[in-house]
Amino acid sequence: MTERVQVAVIGGGIVGCSVLYWLTKLGWRDVLLLERRELTSGSTWHAAGNVTYFGHYSSITQLYVNSIKTYLQAEQDSGHSVGFHAAGSLRLATTGKELAAYRRLTPLYEQLGIEYRVVAPQEIGEIHPLLVTDGLFGAAYTPSDGHVDASGATHAMAIAARSHGARIKRQCPASHLKRDKGVWQIITPKGTISAEHVVLAASFWTRELARQLGLDLPLYALEHHEVVTERVPELAELDKEVPTVRDPYAPSNIRQEGDGYLCGVYESNPKFWAVEGIPTDFAEELLVPDLDRLEPHLLRVMKRLPSFGSAGIKAVNNGPICYTPDGCPLLGPVETHDGLWLASGFAIGIGTGGGSGEYLARWMSDGEPAYDLPIVYPSRFSSALTREHCLNLIKDTYVKGYILPSSD
Ligand SMILES: Cc1cc2nc3c(=O)[nH]c(=O)nc-3n(C[C@H](O)[C@H](O)[C@H](O)COP(=O)(O)OP(=O)(O)OC[C@H]3O[C@@H](n4cnc5c(N)ncnc54)[C@H](O)[C@@H]3O)c2cc1C
User: Fold this and answer.
1) Which atom of ligand 1 is nearest to 40's Cα?
2) Which domain holds residue 105?
3) What's the confidence (pLDDT) of residue 317?
């Protein structure tokens, strides 16, 4: 039996649930989300949950800002906690050039109404008393961002969307997609769904779904580690939660998790995962960690934060993370396929997923984007991009994740 809906969203991570939530907020009722396994079972469940107002590319800062707003709104709409900790963030300047770039961003934050200050090393030490500030030029400080519970935020949006009429089918993978007589047919083990619009929000799996339609999307997965420490007495003794520190020197991000630290590392020799295809039985799994690859970077984190070095390691989580050649998502319509939309390729999907769901849902509602954001349009990549070139660009983007682009 074929079920008809207006919109089918494929993928129940934070991004798919955000699209679903925003569609219902904008009045769409006949919307259905299909999830292969359980909500969050892709990359979302193991994400550190960092959400910052500091956009790597200043042009997508609005997506970061709207993401935190979205999660807090979804918490109110659903009554389900998103676990937001407004501990703030410090983006360290290790060169004068970085500091100058941070200063240039001040008017943008004034315009967005977000508290943002460029602070001197002495003030960094007051904000984060455990950080070694020697050699720093300063930092960009956003006092009111922090981290969320990524699963909590996903479920809050899903609950709120459901209460506005959306439906969610779990354990229901979309196995085949085709366009027939002007509508999309989605084949699942539980029957066929026909939809006017399809949103592919299936992260690195989107590459495989899109390939059935003759599309070669530049999306691949890399391994990405986070290190969780045991209790750190110096942290536990402070009377406040310390902010997340993003350090171009390591490069890494490190925040407080309970009375310990949680550190995400961007190593210089990253490893791709499942380039030839995602294993069909891949479930809520972590990959084998490789501390040797992380070691030079962790040593740098220890120099900056000696209390990290003296703490025992509680866990090392290695999970797949989706990347595009420029690190920005593919968000918007596929110009060659009517009614097909992409919300995939998110490397910073917790940080930008909430705002991206809004951006896409408004575009679907209004027929045009609310504002120009070519840096996320799927059409920005040439179909002539070879796999080798694509993988090289992704690697470079991952490694240079904390180096500010010269312009955007
Ligand atoms: C260790 C680690 C730490 C991270 N920390 C952060 C962080 O602090 N902040 C941040 O912003 N980002 C972080 N990330 C990245 C973040 O996890 C991702 O950007 C985000 O989860 C992507 O969300 P998504 O919804 O696009 O994809 P996913 O969460 O992967 O969701 C895709 C969903 O699609 C489903 N699916 C796939 N194929 C099908 C199909 N055929 N039919 C139906 N459903 C299907 C999957 O089961 C899955 O649930 C981290 C990543 C890693 C690995």
Assistant:
1) 49
2) 2-399
3) 96
